[in-house]
Design goal:
heterodimer; A: about 140 residues; mainly alpha; two-stranded antiparallel ribbon; B: about 160 residues; alpha+beta; 5-stranded mixed β-sheet; 5 helices; 5 strands; elongated
């Protein structure tokens, strides 16, 4: 699956705002709602609530994309986000606001970096984690000459 | 505990720190930096690097790498337009020992390798074509200079 790169960036911008609100209010239900959004986007990027919003409101005003990007890194990032948002929601609900703030802060940082700088933290860390945990896997990307 | 005031401080601190980090990252990303590293020949051969090729653009890619396609285009373009330049793309995840030996931490990472197998430049992120061409140029003229030398001495004799 290939995505219009502006969709994930829009997604990240909305996510950043949501995490900021969570940090300011401690609203656990908002954090959990964001977790659900992450879960849907991770399973099917095109059905994600923010993606639908992008398609309906933003995309019609833009020129067609000059480039498409693979969906896999985006889905991986959404899965990480799910952990942050879910963790924050559960922490606030369970009366552990410090843990909730820490989780939401990481979520805000990642979403902000992605929307403003195009930096995908999960992508940047992925190989680093793989080379530390070690086993080589069969090639998934064809090596071209 | 007042989440609101703590939250406000945290939001401010995160945005400031993330902005600083983002700006630093943006400067480094795609920049072709000169290095000097002589990896074991066995590692390079295992990846498919052929000795004697004046300049090899060795690209490490992975499945989780949106910029890898753009990098592939830049490097393949450069290899197609300059003689003596070869683009070689390998999957990082199926060559983890080479990844560790060559100090590759993310994809895309591009290593510019000379004819002797020495890594002379590296870049993470999508490199600008102009920077790649500039980095590769000395490796190509070196070859021509050697040819002229030989030609020169033959004529003089």
């Amino acid at each position: 699956m290939l995505l219009d790169p502006r969709g994930p960036r829009f997604n990240a911008a909305v996510t950043a705002v949501v995490f900021a609100v969570v940090l300011l209010t401690g609203w656990w239900w908002l954090a959990l709602a964001q977790a659900v959004v992450f879960a849907i986007s991770a399973v099917d990027p095109r059905r994600g609530p923010y993606a639908l919003l992008f398609k309906a409101l933003v995309r019609p005003r833009l020129a067609p994309p000059t480039e498409l990007e693979p969906a896999a890194p985006f889905r991986f990032a959404q899965t990480l986000g799910l952990v942050f948002a879910g963790g924050a929601g559960v922490a606030f609900l369970a009366g552990a606001p410090t843990a909730g703030i820490v989780a939401a802060a990481f979520g805000l940082a990642a979403a902000f970096l992605n929307s403003v700088f195009g930096l995908c933290l999960g992508c940047e860390l992925y190989l680093g984690v793989r080379r530390m945990t070690g086993r080589a896997i069969p090639a998934r990307v064809p090596a071209t000459e | 505990m007042n989440v609101g005031s703590a939250g406000l401080i945290v939001v401010g601190a995160v945005l400031v720190a993330a902005t600083a980090f983002g700006l630093w990252w943006k400067r480094r990303d795609g920049r072709v930096r000169p290095v000097e590293a002589t990896p074991e020949a066995a590692i390079m051969t295992a990846l498919g690097v052929e000795p004697g090729v004046p300049a090899t653009l060795l690209q490490f890619s992975s499945a989780f790498c949106a910029p890898c396609r753009a990098t592939r285009r830049v490097l393949a373009d450069t290899a197609a337009t300059l003689e003596g330049v070869r683009h070689l793309e390998v999957d990082a995840e199926s060559h983890l020992d080479a990844v560790r030996a060559l100090d590759v931490w993310k994809t895309p990472t591009t290593l510019i390798v000379d004819a002797a197998g020495t890594v002379v430049h590296r870049a993470t992120g999508v490199p600008a074509k102009a920077q790649v061409v500039a980095a590769v140029a000395p490796l190509l003229t070196k070859r021509r200079a050697v040819d002229h030398g030989r030609l020169g001495s033959t004529l003089c004799r």
